[in-house]
TrEMBL record:
Alphabetic keyword roster: 4Fe-4S, Iron, Iron-sulfur, Lyase, Magnesium, Metal-binding, Queuosine biosynthesis, S-adenosyl-L-methionine
Binding positions (S-adenosyl-L-methionine): Y40, C41, D42, G75
Xref: PANTHER family: 7-CARBOXY-7-DEAZAGUANINE SYNTHASE
Source species: Gilvimarinus japonicus
Pathway: Purine metabolism; 7-cyano-7-deazaguanine biosynthesis
Keyword Magnesium recorded: yes
Protein task: Catalyzes the complex heterocyclic radical-mediated conversion of 6-carboxy-5,6,7,8-tetrahydropterin (CPH4) to 7-carboxy-7-deazaguanine (CDG), a step common to the biosynthetic pathways of all 7-deazapurine-containing compounds.
Matches recorded under PROSITE patterns: RADICAL_SAM
Cofactor binding annotation: Binds 1 [4Fe-4S] cluster. The cluster is coordinated with 3 cysteines and an exchangeable S-adenosyl-L-methionine. Binds 1 S-adenosyl-L-methionine per subunit.
Binding-site residues for substrate, renumbered to this chain: L15, Q16, G17, R30, T73
E.C. number(s) listed in UniProt: 4.3.99.3
Protein name, entry field: 7-carboxy-7-deazaguanine synthase
Lineage: Bacteria, Pseudomonadati, Pseudomonadota, Gammaproteobacteria, Cellvibrionales
Domain Radical SAM core per the UniProt entry, residue ranges: 21-212
A matching Pfam family: Radical_SAM
Amino acid sequence: MNAASVKITEIFYSLQGESNTSGRPTVFVRLTGCPLRCQYCDSEYAFYGGERMSLDAVLAQVASYNPRYVCVTGGEPMAQRTCPELLSALCDAGYNVSLETSGAIALDNVDARVVKVMDLKTPGSGESHRNLWDNLDTLKSTDQIKFVICSRDDYDWARLKIDERGLADRVADVLMSPSYGQVDERALAEWIVADNLPVRYQLQLHKLLWDDSPGR
Ligand SMILES: C[S@@+](CC[C@H](N)C(=O)[O-])C[C@H]1O[C@@H](n2cnc3c(N)ncnc32)[C@H](O)[C@@H]1O
Ligand SMILES: Nc1nc2[nH]cc(C(=O)O)c2c(=O)[nH]1
Ligand code: SF4
Ligand SMILES: [Mg+2]
């Protein structure tokens, strides 16, 4: 019995559209609220509202899909005090659990079984001043770092950070993703190849399949 609660925008079953498990059927648990305002945010509907649910109720709804993968996202999930407890409870239930986070909130209390997908906010997001660089020290070799690229300037900035901080050696994958509709997708792919960058390019699979609909 777990009576702690979290505020939830939606729980749905879809294909993972990002990260290195892209394409795997995954349950998404989207927590409500975010202290950041990235200019490109595709999840603004999660900023407000939501429904308070007990961790037990969340676990029951997740279990109803019988998934292998569960992704906790938002909003900014780590802005809720009980998020670490939710993550541990999902791991205890036997799922492969990932956390999508801006990294603007300390990550040292996240269960080691959780795969962290930490977005280092680029200058083009308008929120790069929120990056907590100390969070890099909490990352394990199974975690992932993501850059959402809005322009050639963002790309050059990300390339510098990868090099300066040896990011490719710290985690399983450094992901680079075009900000949806804001940078030429093919151009970004070609810059990466031309520079022989140690990253993994990704397009948001769920947007290719279902446009930009919530609950996908
Ligand atoms: C909606 S956020 C939720 C988790 C957390 N707040 C974060 O920013 O990582 C999930 C991921 O979607 C990315 N994202 C949001 N809007 C996007 C867009 N328009 N194009 C590409 N990626 C986007 C974010 O940068 C983040 O990596
Ligand atoms: N299909 C699908 N995959 C996703 N991976 C990360 C998502 C997110 O919003 O954090 C997301 C999402 O919203 N939908
Ligand atoms: S941190 Fe994540 S949820 Fe918050 S505004 Fe940025 S992309 Fe959206
Ligand atoms: Mg999304």
